[in-house]
Amino acid sequence: MDDGKKRARRRAPGRRVYGRSTGVKSTNAGTIVTFPFPPSEAGNCHYFSPVGQGRMSDRDRKSRFKGPKPGGRGGDRDRERHGERSGKHQGKPQGRPQWRDREARGHAKGEGPVVLYGWHSVTMALANPERRIRKLFVTENVARRLADEKIDTRVPPELVHPGDIDRRLGPNAVHQGLLAEADPLPGLHLDELPQDGIVLVLDQITDPHNVGAILRSAAAFGVKAIVTTGRHSPEATGVLAKSASGALELVPIIEVPNLHRALGEMNEAGFLTVGLDSEGQGDLSKVPLHAPLALVLGAEGKGLRQLTRETCSVVARMDMPGAIKSLNVSNAAALALYIGTSRLGLMG
Fold it and tell me: Which residues pair with 275 in a beta bridge?
């Protein structure tokens, strides 16, 4: 095919071209957006125009990610479709404390941006004004969904193939077709803890899936903050953020260098610090409770450390009627929060 025919083919009506910085194109299929937007047209708010049906060409599938990309590729379209595809964008986070300092929290252990992926994790971050979004990568299907739900992307998005995100995150990450790079959230100091409601304290819980699930329960029960150790705790990014399903944007995390000292300060501030242990003196459903209440959970296996146990005001257990007397730490946190919020009259 000569050069003239090639140019004519590229200009054929209805052909979509991605990856060019021309903003908006009109075709016989309707108005489409090309990615990325030129900086001069970016502005502060970015909404997708409706994206028509069609497939990306091999040329358009070239990865936009820079640097090494761990993991292999497989199940691209299935992986994009996994997870919470039903339900609408959860909207702007409500009731989150306003931080008074700009110290980064939850990411001091690593370098570079916080990586968020999955529908709820990313869209909740987009809705959080405290979260600065650096880059947003989306697939064609997600671009269409963002347009349908009129979600403000806040930065110029870049259209990528699902396999690009797979190579960035690894083959087992359920990314649902979108990935964001963002700054860590600003910090909250221990002396800024609200004097009402419930706070969770995590004693060296290192599994990001467990911490993410605990965050999700904490958001559901209106927990004011989570206090955790600076060491022996996962970073607030990646797997943790995905497991939290958007709750990372709702519940502040306070990292402390010394949990024993932090619990002592909380005791002095009027908190009732209740350690949870299978060998506790009394059942949590019967132990006298008052607000502000701090529920302290230890890692699976070793539980609360000895010094942590000794610093808590009370060490309680949760009696189970069945043959198994212990729960996964994230399930134990959810049950403890239900008992605590019910007994403090915070359920409704």
Answer: 296, 315
Q: Among residues 182, 210, 226, which one ends one of the domains?
A: 182
Name the DSSP letter for residue 156. Answer: -
Residue percentage of the chain with pLDDT more than 90: 60
pLDDT > 50? residue 11: no
Q: Which two tokens stand for residue 86?
A: 């039903």
Report whether 268 contacts 313 (CB < 8 A): no
* Mean pLDDT (the chain, rounded): 77
Distance, CA of 78 to CA of 93 (rounded, Å): 29
- The predicted model gives 10-23 an average pLDDT of 37
Token reading at 306: 């000895």
> With contact defined as beta carbons under 8 Å apart, do 196 and 168 qualify?
no
| Weakest-pLDDT range from 17-26, 68-77, 117-126, 328-337 | 17-26
Distance CA 296, CA 337 (A): 11
Domain shared by 134 and 99, yes or no: yes
- CB neighbour class for 327 (10 Å; exposed up to 12, middle 13-18, buried from 19): middle
pLDDT mean over 238-247: 94
The C-alpha atoms of residue 263 and residue 271 are separated, in whole angstroms, by 9
Give long-range contacts, CB 8 A cutoff, 24+ apart: 214-218. 214/297, 214/329, 214/330, 214/333, 215/240, 215/243, 215/244, 215/247, 215/248, 215/251, 215/253, 216/243, 216/244, 216/245, 216/247, 217/330, 217/333, 217/334, 217/337, 218/247, 218/251, 218/333, 218/337
Domain extent for 218: 190-343
Integer angstrom CA distances of residue 98 from 94, 166, 194, 251: 11, 35, 11, 11
Q: For residue 8, tell me if it sits in a domain.
A: no
Do 162 and 307 lie in a common domain?
no
pLDDT tens profile 106-154: 344 556 789 999 999 999 999 999 999 999 999 999 999 999 999 999 9
